[in-house]
Amino acid sequence: MSTEIREKKRRITSKTDDEQSSRSSPKRDSKKPALHKVKKRENSPYDEEREIEARDWQTDINLHNQTTSRLRELMADIHSLKQQSEKDEAVKDKQREASLLFVTLKKLNRISHLRCKKARDDTQGAKQRVDTLHLQLQNLLYEVMHLQKEITKCLEFKSKDEDIELVDVETFYKEAPSSISKPNVTRNNEHKQQLARLDWELEQRKRLAEQYKMRQGNRDVVAKEIHKKQDYLESLLPRLTTILQSTVPVQEYLSMPLNEIRSQHQLAKLLPRPLYILYVQANAYHEACDGSMTLKIEGDAETALSALSTSSMVDDDSDSDNEDTLSESKRRRKTIGDKLEEQREKILAVHPLQVIMTLRFKGGTLLTLTFNYLIVLQIITVGVHCKLGGTVSQVANSAGDLLSSTNLLSHLYPGDDGKDSPSATNAYQLGKIGMESLSAYISRVGHPYRWAQWLGGLDFLPSNDGQAVKATSTVSASHMEATVKALKARVKARLALNQQLLSLEKHNLQVPAASINLFPTKVCSMLKSWTKLTHDDFQALPFMRGHPSAALLQESHSVFQTYMDRGSAQLQAVILLGLDYPAQPAHFILNLAWQGQHNATNNSHIRDMEAEVNIHFGELIGKNTVNHLLTNQLQRLLMCLDVFLETQGGRRRDQTASHQQGEFVAEKMYTRMTRGRNRSKPYKYNSLQGYFMQRR
Fold first, then answer.
1. DSSP per residue over 348-403, as a string?
2. For residue 662, what pLDDT is reported?
3. pTM (2 d.p.)
4. Which of 58-62, 270-274, 518-522, 675-679 has the lowest mean pLDDT?
5. Which residues, 6 or more positions from 528, have their beta carbon under 8 angstroms from its beta carbon?
């Protein structure tokens, strides 16, 4: 029985494989096998594939379940019979029945395989139909896309006549002849109207072409005449140059250096914008207000011309990689120190052109200001040089620092010492390459004064920190006159201070004639010495310990010491003189050695004397005596010393006091010797009446 089952299985399997190979082979004709199969099915008495179509799968499942359950029962019965040693006949009957059930299972198995095969074939056929429909859809989509492209091309098509600028319709009918415009036909037909306008445009262009040819001929004639005149003018240039060279002596004689002015104006075009604005505004002020000021541009013009085409910004990301690849075989590789040094040199690069301003003073003194422009930092620096004239016989020993280029123009405006850059951006630029501040390089690049930036049109306001500042003529024009006057006033004040210090070093106090009426005719106290102190000497003075004025000392102050005598009394005065003198007056600190040590810490009269000199200095300033304020303050101090000694001696009534009163005779007129609870002394002098009185 099992042999028959195997044979049937082989036949079914071979048959299935043949059918699959016949279906999957693409080279065979699909029609012939189909006809053969139909004929075979019609002739065969039993066809499982046809039977599958008539069978229900659910019924087959139930049959399979029943068969397997019955087969389990038979196997169990056979096992029990063999255990009981029953007769072989019953076992064989059970085995036959089980074999038949196996045949049923085999058939169900074949049916299930055939049913799966049929489902796969149906699925494959459906997939092929879907693929065919998808290909048809793609073909249709491609055709649609092609048609859309063609439609878009048609819609975007532009005729060449659309690029022609035609006259408007009203002008066309107004100017064109009726033979071309044909208004009866073209007004209602846009196409014919367009053709008529194109015809009229063609006629106009033909007419213009004829005019062009005629005028081109005229142009050639005029060009020949121009060429002749140009040759004549070119031949005039060397002649005019010769004539100008011959007029140089005449220009010098008439003080009209036209050639020099022309060359200066050519150089001005190469200046950076801030220096150009400074030069233009200063030149305008020179021509309008100040003939004693001179301007000049110096430097390398060729280098400045080449600098116009290069960038003024530092390439922060530049490394030495490119340099090493270019010249690695010729020179050594740069170290980090070399690269930093190169960056420092680059950031301190100065424009090759500079503006030199010279201010002249009476007596032949010259103040020369050299304005430079730092290309990377984008600020203006000033080099200062003062040449004393012949009337200045010598420089006082104590005035050397005040006339030096470092301090001469410091604090021209409040807080402007010219040591730090006015631009906050520069601090970050310098710090990035290890440069703490610009003050260490002032001797090399000059002082970055704020007023120098103003003259160049740069105004670094606090609100603009970190932003690029553009130079404007408005800023320069608004500061030019005031700054030039301040420069002249500073130099005049320093020259006058030098003369005063020369006299003081000789123990000679010369009061200007315009200030004589501010003091009494006779002053008995006398100036005995004048010296300059260092800051350490100032701090070491005994009476400065705990003195309130000790905190007023600044690094920029010059410290002087003088002694004034009258009889046995000696007044020691320490004077603090700032760089902004006479805008800020000298500050006096007093110590009187007479019957003990008297100063502001232990004597109210000395405090009043200091206030008279330090606070009420405005009475000593006249129209022409502002630069002699130091001398007037010293003269007032001598006068106050007389008042103190004369009134202090007259106040005592014992024997010692009468002796002192005999030493300091009251030679001046007083309304009252003392007044008030503080017994204040009459330090104020009434120049009209000639007497002394207390201040209210």
1. T-B-SEEEEEEEE-TTS-EEEEEEEEETTTTEEEEEEEEE--TT-----GGGTTTT
2. 59
3. 0.61
4. 675-679
5. 507, 562, 563, 564, 565, 570
